[in-house]
Amino acid sequence: MQLNKIEFLNGSSSIEPIDKGYSGAFKYSFIKDNQKYFLKIGKFKIDKDLEETLTNNGISHPTIIDCGKYDGDLNYIIEEYIEGKTLKEELDRYDSKFIYEYGFEIGTQYRKLRSIYPDKPVSDEMYKEYLSNVDERVKILKSLIQYDDKINFKDKKFLYDIITYLSQNTHLIKNSYLVFGHTDVKPNNYLLSNGTIIATDIEHTGYKELSLSMLWSFARHDDKDEKNLVFARGYLDGLYNFCVPSFVLDCFNYTYLFNMATHCIKYIKKEEYNKLSNLISYVNETYITDHKLKINEKLRSILDINCNELLRGSDITLVKGSYSPNNLTFKCQNGIKTYFLKIMKMSQEHYQKALDSYNLLNQCGIPTSPIVDNRCIVKNKYYYLLSDFIELNEMDKSIGNTFQDGIESGKIVASYLIKLKGHHLKNAKNHDRDYLLQNIMKNIEKIYGEDEYSDYIHWSKKEVTDYINQYIKSFEKEPIDLIHGDVKFGNILYHDNEIYFTDNESLVFSYDIINFTHNIHTGFLEDKNLCYKGFVNGYLKYMNNGVIPPRIQNQVKFLLIYYMLRIIGGVLDNKNDEKKLTLVMKACKHYIDEDNEIEWLN
After folding, report:
1. CA atoms 421, 427, 428, 434: torsion sign
2. Which of 71, 147, 218, 374 counts the most CB atoms within 10 A of its CB?
């Protein structure tokens, strides 16, 4: 291409084409004045106020440097070049629980744009364009399957059902809405760079029918389908504040089959009949129940705002760190009143145990945020706890950062939780030494299998088993008692001697040190985190009459191995990176191989 038509490129160097993505646009990177830029040329139109619109509404994006007419119906856009990985590239590494949070955050950002550019009914022009594309696919599909004897009877029936559905349900398109925002919402169009989510392909910002704008977020058909669906649900929950109209969701069914028809046409043309059968089987098994397509149900939020008068009209934001679509935490602002909402998928027994845990904490005089409502949401599977929101910082933001500051805060927390000792809680799990040993041996079997050695750990299977058998003995004579189970700064709100405990759903019977199972590694991985080390020190001293028992040294080493094995399991499942594993291995060599004392536990 004759790039010299673009004035900004004068004086630039290192112009390199970028072969990435599926659009017909031309993409390049180049250097000018020691800065790297991104150039895109294609059939798109850019609103002259786009940069201002995105910036004013807090949507992180590459800064638009220049844009304009290129040639004929082609335009160009030049943006700052941002290094990062797309969410699509990260789908393998992250569990679906993280993907929901990313989708929700993006949807929340675009919710602000919807307040400026309200949703609009599908226009006649849009309706005709959509129908034209549907008619085209229906005709092609009919002609392909009519005389093709290589398509088995079962698959043919499904394809004819698609044709019938697409032909008879065009009213679903009319009932949908045009929504202002990114017109191609999918994990591939968002970068993760230095912890920030950055929107790319921003030149397509504008009005588009909602399900079409999200087509590649929910209508995939490969091994990442589940995670894309979770991303789409998070996006919709954030975009509509959990109030997506049902008739709008119904259009997602239509768009899903519209896209599946496209894939079926491709497979038939290439005579890839196995892929065709696999796709049809997948759709039938995953999304069709009682002969009805259920994409709309898969995308429907678990939260029905109208189930509680207290929440109606609230502005709901996800609390970072909630992570799981089946265990979510939200801040709900309703006028001057703020609530804290936890939604959990659990059995009736587990739910009752959660309520019993809160009741017992209150009986013991351990402060928790007052529960103002709780109930089942959907078919006895989802429950929520609604409590008053406590306007206090997490504990580490309210104390100093020295080792002594940590000791004092640990003692304060222990002075409350020691009140649990001697109490009984019906159905509370018993995390004794046998339970700990059983869990850690499962990880060992997962990592080693039948082999004696693993590529991820410098110990043989026998060596790690010997260490475990050595350290598990330190739990033998210690009595188990009722504990919180997850004592960390993030679960404690504190300021000026006012304290509240959160995440109190699962009190368990175990050892004091098990309170730190999920975050004991912090003391090893972050050398500067003196405050946290002091926190553990102070807590254990208060719980043991001012002296940390010698057994704690080996118990913590047990937990360090436990955490290392969990990280390796995450690496094997593509959920953790090996950088974190390197840090844990370093700690294991120092404290276990060399048998050094853990100084901050004296």
Report:
1. positive
2. 218
